[in-house]
Every structure is written in C-alpha cells, then in structure tokens.
Amino acid sequence: MNSKSWRYTAEDLPQLSPFGSVLADRIAISRFEDGGWKSGGLIPMNDFRLHPGAHCLHYGSSCFEGLKAYRWDDDSIALFRPDRHIQRMQQSAAVLRLPIPDRDELMEMLVATVMDAMADIPPAPGTLYLRPILLGTDTNIGAAARPSESAVLYVMASPVGDYFAAGDRALRLLIQESARTTSQFGKVKTGANYASALGITLDARDKWGTDQILFCPDSDVQETGASNFVLIDDKTIITKPLCDSFLHGVTRDSVLQIGRDLGYEIQEKDFCVDDLLKWTQHGEAALSGTAAVLAGVGTMIHNEKEYTLSGGETGPNTQRLRKALVSVQRGTEANGHGWIKKLT
Ligand code: COI
C-alpha cells in the first residue's frame, strides 16, 4: 500500500500490463436456478466452481461486458454508464437464450465488486476494469439444440492501464474484406466473436505488424476485433449506423454524443473500403471501446499497400475527443447526460 489507502500509484501501471492480467481476489456471484436468481454475495475467486459438462463450455452459451470504475482526483469513485452495459448484457443474453440478468441485481453486484476492490483502483490514468460474465450451466453434454435453463452470473475486477501494448502510439490496421463474425451474433458480446477474430488477427500481426484487423465484409467497413471504428475530421464524425452485424459500443455512443456537443456533424452511414482509402488522404480514424477508449489509427494496410493517416500519429481531433471523453469519465468536466454513477 502507498501512503494513501490504495495499492497502486500511477508509477505502478506498467505492472498491470498486459491489460486484464491482474485480478481482484473476490467476485460477486449470482446463480439462476429453478426459475429465479439467487445471490451468492461476494466469494473468493478460488471458490468458483463450474461443472466440466456445463453448457457454456460445450455450446458457447456465454456473454460478457466490459466497463470501468474511475478514481477521481478527489479520491471519490465513479462508474461510467453502467446502465447501458447492463442493457447490452440483457440483449446478449436474450439472443443466446440465456436467463436474463436482473437489472437491479446486476447493478448491486457491480457496486459490491467495486467497493470490495476499492484498494485496487489505480489513480489516473489507470482504472478498475469490470467484467460481468454470464454462463449457461446446465450439465447435459447432449444439449446442443437446447438452451441452458440454469446460469451463473459473476463480476470480476481488474486494475488496468492501457489496453493496447502500443500505449499512445497510433495503431496499425489491416483492412480485411471478410466478416468478424456472423450477422446474427454481431451485436452480441460473446466470446465466440473474439475467438473468430483471433487467428486472423495473429496472422496479420506476424505478417504486417498490425495491431488489429478492420473487418469489411463485401467492402462494408464494420469494426475491428476488439473495438468499433470511426472516421473523424475537423467538422465530421462518420461511423456505421447500428445494425445486427456489429457490436453496439457504449463508447461509440458516448463519442458520438460528445462530438455532437462539441459541434461536430455526426453521420451514421455505411461506407466502403474505397471511401475509407480516400478518407486517409485528409482525415483521421480511431477505434472506440471501453478498453480502447478512443485510440488513433496511424496506418492502414490494404492489398499490400500502406496508407498513412495524420502523419502516422493520433490526429488532433481524435486527441480532442478522447480528452473530452476522459474528462467526463474522470469528473473533470460535467456533460449533463447522466452517464456517471458516483459510488463514494
Ligand atoms: C471492452 O472494450 O470492454 C472489450 O470487451 C474488449 C476486450 C477485447 C477487452
């Protein structure tokens, strides 16, 4: 512990890398059995048990969320848009035919997890990343075509710094004209989508030194493996309109609203790879997500050719929007949209 009552200082953030590898000791847990949720309170992570025949392990009945708690400069603690993350988890659970988490109970679990891990919340620029996850737990290894009627929901906490190993370096993307996942799973936050993007992302990293793939099936510019994708210039923010084929990012929504507040014109419209390549001649691009925040893109590779954006750096409008977003998350700016839930 440092002289204050928490474990980490800003200098300790490199120890928290890679993102998500340091975990708080306890989880908040609830089980859905016999038609209802039963809270199990907070338990040591090592006491968590899952049957080897659990539905989630065999048939992929699982979905998760990612949101953050922030230690503000006055040492108070705040969650950013927990209600939107709960809604999205309920939407994911419905598509997977899993028991739907109860809104109020999940909110209580989030709060309990943060309060329990209070000493682990790093100061800026670190955060406490929260990972609610819902798993189908029926033990019937033949139930491929049946939903799991039982489930476990728990919340993990992880003190984190930057998600991308690149830190502040602008990212390299490979433009790939294939889909990240299937159209019926695109808006579901499920592990299968990340598994589907993994191999191809690693192959591209080996060949091109890229950080992420930008998935553009039939030339439709959609999203990367771990984040949504936006184009930005001095006046405009452009991104794909919401549809079932990609994740409905809470950060995407927040950046669009903050952009609107700052006077940018918001265009939610489809665009193709040719439009994107033309855009690289004058505009900026960025990845948005809870983990990514708003990360600038410096290079895109398409058909073995490299396209540089903003001189290979994070562009000034991306920096401006990121700063505005982080200021709201950290409470140094208020924006009146009711996005902050203060816990202390
Ligand atoms: C998030 O941004 O919260 C995510 O779930 C991305 C994940 C790859 C860390």
Automatic annotation (TrEMBL):
GO MF, one example: branched-chain-amino-acid transaminase activity
SUPFAM superfamilies: D-aminoacid aminotransferase-like PLP-dependent enzymes (SSF56752)
Enzyme class: transferase
Gene3D superfamilies: 3.30.470.10, D-amino Acid Aminotransferase, subunit A, domain 2 (3.20.10.10)
Modified residues (N6-(pyridoxal phosphate)lysine): K189
Family matches, as PANTHER family: AMINO ACID AMINOTRANSFERASE, BRANCHED-CHAIN-AMINO-ACID AMINOTRANSFERASE 3, CHLOROPLASTIC-RELATED
Source organism (scientific name): Stieleria marina
NCBIfam families (UniProt xref): ilvE_II (TIGR01123)
UniProt-recorded name of the protein: Branched-chain-amino-acid aminotransferase 2
EC number: 2.6.1.42
Record key words, sorted: Aminotransferase, Pyridoxal phosphate, Transferase
Cofactor(s) the record lists: pyridoxal 5'-phosphate
Organism taxonomic ancestry: Bacteria, Pseudomonadati, Planctomycetota, Planctomycetia, Pirellulales
Domain of life: Bacteria
Gene Ontology terms describing biological process: branched-chain amino acid metabolic process
Family indicated by similarity: Belongs to the class-IV pyridoxal-phosphate-dependent aminotransferase family.
Pfam families: Aminotran_4
